TrEMBL record:
The gene is priA. Component of the replication restart primosome. Keywords: ATP-binding, DNA replication, DNA-binding, Helicase, Hydrolase, Isomerase, Metal-binding, Nucleotide-binding, Primosome, Zinc. Zn(2+) 2 binds at C449, C452, C467, C470. Coiled coil: none annotated. It comes from Pseudomonas duriflava. Residues 215-381 form the Helicase ATP-binding domain. Belongs to the helicase family. PriA subfamily. Binds 2 zinc ions per subunit. Its EC number is 5.6.2.4. Zn(2+) 1 binds at C440, C443, C480, C483. InterPro entries: DEAD/DEAH_box_helicase_dom, Helicase_ATP-bd, Helicase_C-like, P-loop_NTPase, PriA, PriA_3primeBD, PriA_3primeBD_sf, PriA_C. Residues 410-632 form the Helicase C-terminal domain. Initiates the restart of stalled replication forks, which reloads the replicative helicase on sites other than the origin of replication. Recognizes and binds to abandoned replication forks and remodels them to uncover a helicase loading site. Promotes assembly of the primosome at these replication forks. This is Replication restart protein PriA.
Amino acid sequence: MPETLLRLALPSPLRRLFDYCAPADVDVSTLRPGIRVRVPFGRREVIGVLVELVTHSDVPADKLKPALELLDAVPPMPATLVELCKWAAQYYQHSLGDTFSWALPGLLRQGEPAERRLQRFWLAEPEAQTTDPRLTRAPRQREALTIIKQHPHGVAHELIGQLGLNKESLNTLLEKGLVKIETRMIRSPRHQGAWLAQAELPLNPEQRIAFEAVRARLGYFHCFLLEGVTGSGKTEVYLQLIRQVIESGHQVLVLIPEINLGPQTLSRFEKRFNARIALLHSALTDRERMDAWLAAREGDVDIVIGTRSALFTPLKNPGLIIVDEEHDTSYKQQEGLRYHARDLAVVRARLEKVPLLLGSATPSLESLHNAEIGRYGLLRITQRAGSATAPRFQRLDVRSRPLDDGLSQPLTQAIADTLQKGHQVLVFLNRRGFAPTLLCHDCGWVAQCPRCDARMTIHQRSRELRCHHCDHRSYPPQHCPACGKLDLRPLGAGTERAEERLKILFPDYPVLRVDRDSTARKEAMQTLFTTVQRGEPCILVGTQMLAKGHHFPRVTLVAILDADGGLFSADFRASERMAQQIVQVAGRSGRAELPGLVLIQTHLAEHPLLVQLTEQGYAAFGQQALAERRAAGLPPFTHLALLRAEAHKPGQAEEFLEAAYSEAEQLAEEMCIPSIELLGPVPAPMERRAGRFRAQLLLQASLRAPLHRILTPLSQRLEYLPSSRQVRWSLDVDPIDLY
Ligand code: ADP
Ligand code: ZN
Ligand code: ZN
């Protein structure tokens, strides 16, 4: 009978599995796929995941090495999560071992046991007496024993300091056999009593329709797109659905785009529910992350909230998955496993047989398309909840108007009027720093990053030039490096410059800047929001960080300084993003009884997409934009995969991509797949970045299946191309960013 072998996925970028013999003295028939196994790999030891047991290997028997150790009896990941990883690895053309690594908490990757944290408790031995003769000369020990005896359930080791106990006395008592240590698992207590901590709001008719539609599908797989303007009460619909799910003993997974929104979401959920809620965020220690992961797996958490990677949280009894702000591009991971958490959520929901609810005021064109063809159920809330009214849009044509550091006169006037009424103003500009670059007025020299094909951004506050692509920093020159003259001027405006100008124009009002630079400190954002919530007139100026999720009820004017970038960018998704940003920023205003006005400065006031958006709203814009995509043969009507390569020397990336091109062409012929279009190789839009030369090859197909049929063998062949050794390459399936 042939020997049974272990086929493992190892944490390596290679897209293949590895065979090993079982460790000695192990009954192979008891091994379950999904367990972790430690094996020798090259000169290292690594931890892999058992994928299957096989009896035949392509590796000659004498070359097979034995595995060193089995780390689990029971697979740490539930079967559906293992399936999800397999699906993701296959779809995104990524190594399965690496995919498991993304999914497992760090401590499990490092080989820690998949067990909840144990806590030590000090307890008195039943016979121990404070009158024990051995304690007559040891008053501290006697006192310690007295305290311990007052806690018949034991004193947690972490709390001994607070009770005035010290370790030495306890250890001596332990040696004398008067106290003992017990280790116990910490478990969050089971839920007791009512789930609701706060009454539910009566739903309006549109909310009710959405709620009932999803509720009817609980227990089944179905995808819904909930399109509701900002402030329309989507979250209220989520909350009422969550209640249904947790009351029936199931768990809910809620994905949010950005962890900045976590505390706000968490506090709203905690106000509503008397439930066990876990917020997964990047500040958790490895141990805390693993504890939360295990607690969710064991059903000791009712609601899990987290960003994209939380999609890989195991759930014992899943009941519903919600992806809030589903259009947000931060759901797409841009390195390693390039997955889209929204798209994978569809797969997860199908595997778990639960409904998926995608919510947004500005759904992605992909999701709108899926709703249109009936793949997703479309639920709409068209009115703002309560008494809030929708903001009014106005395009402000700035052609031939002088701009004062990016601000036109009518805009400045509108800001002044708003502040005078005692309201707040939000100024949106999606460009941080002081100015996009430094220009010599004499010869036209501009400050270029020495490592990228990009301009350096001026940061006034820190008195430096910074590249936003590679973070290269330098001091601004005193004279022009090209002609030596002194007339160097900032060109264009970023948030810093707008802030500076607004401070001069409105010295009597606070001007608060929100961008990645100003909120680098942890509490900065929170402090700022507290100030805004107080409600006094002020000006908020910031990047898209301002556009996400927050409520600013006293903002009645939203000023968008520059909408043009989105209208003539080379990126076909730029207009979609611009529209989403405008609508999202606009949605921050006029939440309460105060109606809002949105002023958009543009040089393209008659652009059809902008007109559609501002006069008929996002849904109409979406229709128009989808029609344009269809006509141009772009996603979601075609499917893309982007092969990127970068190298230290010019030409190397192209050389690799030329070879890739030939391989792809050959595969298409061998497999009789004529419908794949190969576009490139071409230099990347930013050819040099951080000192490397970059190029790309785009694969496009009108159907997804043939594209994927080719990608799998192609990516394997690429690993063996000689030219692949000189480059760093990656394959991005459904890229959202062609740069
Ligand atoms: P969204 O998630 O769509 O931005 P929210 O759920 O946050 O909207 O609701 C916006 C505001 O309207 C909140 O203050 C919320 O309490 C309120 N609200 C939501 N639904 C109702 C309702 N049915 N009746 C009254 N107020 C509601
Ligand atoms: Zn010059
Ligand atoms: Zn750079």
